[in-house]
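Sanity check

After download, print the first record. It should look like this:
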Amino acid sequence: QRRLVESGGGLVQPGGSLRLSCESSGIILSVYTASTMAWYRQAPGKQRELVASISSDRATNYLDSVKGRFTISRDNRKRAAYLEMNSLQPEDTAVYFCAATGGGIDYWGQGTQVTVSS
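Expected structure tokens:
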């Protein structure tokens, strides 16, 4: 059983918005709450990069190129994380992965494709 499943990717025009969701399963609430949730992305021929993270204390960090455009959030009761992406540009095109780390876990989702094109 997959521990993390991403959804919400798709095709969007430049300047558009998407909201990605990361749903978890099989993680007890106390462990999930103690973990850091993060979104990574990987474009064809490029290295995987950290896009955004949110800690157990809800402190956030963002890749410089997405700061001010993307917002990461989490809902501990639902054991889910989200990435709101605004003002999308072709350079944001990539497969986006959700990860849960810390609190004794290291789980990754299968990825969801985001394509920004006119």
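If your output differs, re-run the checksum step. Summary of this record's structure: DSSP finds one helix and eleven strands in the chain.
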